[in-house]
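Same chain as my last thread, 252 residues:
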Amino acid sequence: MAVTIGWWTVDVADAARLAPFYEELLGWERLFDDPDEGVALVPPGDLVMGRGLLLYAEHTTGPKRSKNPAHLDLRPADQDAEVARALSLGATRVDVGQGDVTWEVLADPEGHEFCILAADGSVAGGLEVACWALDVADLDRAQAFWAELLGWEEVDRVDGAVRLADPAGEGYALDLLVTPDARDSKNRVHPDLIPSGDEGDAQARPREVERALSLGATRVDIGQGDAPWEVLADPEGNEFCILRPRGWSPPA
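reply #2:
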């Protein structure tokens, strides 16, 4: 039994209009563009689980009203230059209560936050994904759930934050961050999980759903109707989806 992050989904008002922003910002390519499925963006090269972004026209969320509990952290070669470039592409600076920090908090043209971290010499040019960050209230509870569900390892812990990493080195790291902010609606950014198994394995998704429930997840109704995926929430209330298998199996 295994499950991994396939990609992260962002609920947007206009996927076609927003996609060029991320293509230019990240240097990613369009994998597909579908009126119903949205616009999928991936880094150049071979497809890798966990390294993709789906801009999905979600009609049940409504206008963005508050800070997203999940966001993308980007590592630059030159922070000032990359912030200026992001602003030139249509990003805006935003204040989410970050105070005097070493990173810059920006928002895409639809208001979805992302951070450009301080340069540390690890990036040769442009921007690279450092991690996805997820706000939680109970750090130990969230760590236990996501580490067990994904089979990922805790690789760093500081006051109020834990980093989980895929031991296979496929998906981007997941940072769990303690935040006092209360959610007031469905998360507009969430991970879509892919269970192990052949595409025709009808038991793969139910098996991983039951395992997630046994770890403390709950089923939630966000207006998905009769969808070909299961919508769950972690013990912190952060939604995620479990999709059908795509032929993925964990590395030996």
